[in-house]
Amino acid sequence: MDRLPLPLEGITVVAVEQAVAAPFATRQLADLGARVIKVERTDGGDFARGYDTAARGLASHFVWCNRGKESIALDLKDPRGLEIVKRLVADADVFVQNLAHGAAARLGLDAATLCAEHPRLVAVDISGYGASGPYAGKRAYDMLVQCEAGLVSVTGTPEQPVKAGIPAADIAAAMYAFSGVLAALVRRGTTGRGGPVEVSMLDALAEWLGHPLHHTIHGGKPPERTGLAHAVIAPYDAYPTGDGGRVLLSVQNDREWRRLAEQVVGRPELGSDPAFATNAARVANRARTDELVGKALGALGTDEAVARLEAAGIACARLRDLHELAGHPQLAARERWREVGSPVGPLRALLPPITLPGGDEARMGDVPALGQHTEALLRAVGMTDAEMAALRRDGVTV
Asked: Is the pTM higher than 0.90?
């Protein structure tokens, strides 16, 4: 049977993007077969290129979010540079931007303006707080939005709130932008019209705060910060093992508790002890519950602890660091690692989570150098050698 092509083959995306939210969204489109043209500033490009040098001299954020794209470097403050972007957009299916508030509108690159000019275009505006309201013009970096959205208030220990260890607000906005593009393309297939798509980081992350938010607005009290523990379930935490590891376990019902007490803790009588027999009792006696479980696991090595828990039918996990994730046996067994090209040579990268059996594998293209595709793209929009030379001379391109 013939293999199915990638679902976005033939779709062209133009992105005036920076940092994480828009680049991560458009990388998903590139992985699924879209051609993504990334418009970057001439003075260093996407500022995420300068975040660090961890990926053999390249920035880890940039490598993560920008494989499979074509880079064109343009000065959009120069009318000639802006005109080139508009020529590219005229032949595109999708346009994505996450410029500072008001900047896209001043350039005529906001979704409303572009969709009025190109009815089949899907145009995406990604912002921090939305296009209107008192926060519309407020700077919106990921950590700041995590704070405004309340994520930090429910993450951490009882004593100390902490931000998430990943750019959760950026990723949330990126994934809603990605799904918004897909939905708008489906609608275009039935109506012939594209249309604007608006996503804000605050809206996206507020949606992800669904459980604690609804717990608060309907129950009247925010969930307590509990570190790796669970606010209303016990035992549910990470416990040290005898060889220096940590194992997280979760007991979801009283039957599981009885199995844990008998097969792991070695105290079957705890299964019927009124102080521990129900989840409510175990939560009320959390310190003693954790002490009993911790003592039992502390006498075992990590491998043996996991084996005992799994034999007892108790949900568990190792508390891994990122080096251990990179060598995770499940990722290796399922062959999830690939290599992508870059200006510094091949780099390891994970296959994207969306798998389409029976079709082509995700297109994990190279990470581009700044302006790597500028000349080819300028020729594609009809620029002559003399015109390109003038643009380089005047700093409109590099």
From this structure: yes
